[in-house]
């Protein structure tokens, strides 16, 4: 007979798969949904930046051929197979495409408001299809897919999550959600200001207020996951090139022949982790800063992103009660 002791961590293990910064990539999204069964996890969590960044017009010319300006080169297509090859590449890169005739293209290209409406429509359509795929693939399982936004996502597009989600997909942006009967999660997709002036940026004092409002809903931070898109400041999870914002597009700052790096994270996020000591912090935003950091009892991770290559970078987090049993970075 063995003596029984309280607090030895004998509860059930929960495994989550976390990835972020998919930026519209169809291939990477499919890999993300399929990761649920492949890694045998209990939940999928995406840390935001679901939307792509570019729309490529495919213009039908009077002679019947189609043209597209792709990566700075004008390409002419003679048949549907060539167009399909282009759209397949665009889908991997996370870019959208739009077929139109010459008159429609001339009308749209000079109208910023029309371009924004087109971009929003295409982004909503793709995100809606993503949700449908996740609902289909996860049907009949206990696995749920938690989706929140990032700084590159707009509130208008993120609203699709509430409109089309049914059973397996959970919209978690700006909310407290229950992962199971033992763990909760709060999600925030805003970042500190960037040189790119993205849709959802806020100052550190503003982020502190947002986080404070979320924390009023959290009863036990030691069993709560922070799904905050922006990493803690100067954590090594936020290291990137410093850019010169006086030119457009912004370019790397060079000193002594070397590009300058700095921490682009959030002091408010770092302070919140220090103060509340959550179960774990899940972060993204800085694609090249894959890694892990520790703040007291709390661990913070950033799996990085290579969405443009169709590579899914992620991290499997194993939890039991108020303990992180392990983290395993993945790539595939």
Give a topology summary.
Blueprint: E1 14-19, H1 26-38, E2 43-46, E3 55-60, E4 66-70, E5 73-77, H2 80-93, E6 96-101, H3 102-109, H4 112-138, E7 144-147, H5 155-164, E8 169-171, E9 176-178, E10 184-188, H6 204-215, E11 224-228, E12 239-241, E13 243-244, E14 251-252, E15 254-255, E16 258-259, E17 261-263, H7 267-276, E18 280-282, E19 291-295, E20 298-302, E21 313-320, E22 323-331
Parallel strand pairs: 1-2, 2-7, 3-6, 7-8, 10-11, 11-18, 18-20
Antiparallel strand pairs: 1-21, 3-4, 4-5, 9-10, 12-17, 13-14, 15-16, 19-20, 21-22
Helix pairs in contact: 1-4, 4-5, 6-7
Overview of this structure, please?
The protein has 332 residues and is α/β, with parallel strands linked by helices. Helices cover 28% and strands 29% of the residues. It has one domain (15-331): Purple Acid Phosphatase, chain A, domain 2. It contains seven helices and 22 strands. The strands form six sheets. It has a six-stranded mixed β-sheet with strand order 8-7-2-1-21-22. Strands 9-10-11-18-20-19 form a six-stranded mixed β-sheet, covered by helices on one side. Helix 4 packs parallel to helix 5 (155-164) and helix 6 runs parallel beside helix 7 (267-276). The protein starts with 13 loop residues before the first strand and ends with a strand. The relative contact order is 0.16.
Please sum up the structure shown.
The protein has 332 residues and is of the alpha/beta class. It is built from 7 helices and 22 strands. It has a 6-stranded mixed beta sheet. A 6-stranded mixed beta sheet has the order 9-10-11-18-20-19, with helices on one face. Strands 5-4-3-6 form a 4-stranded mixed beta sheet.
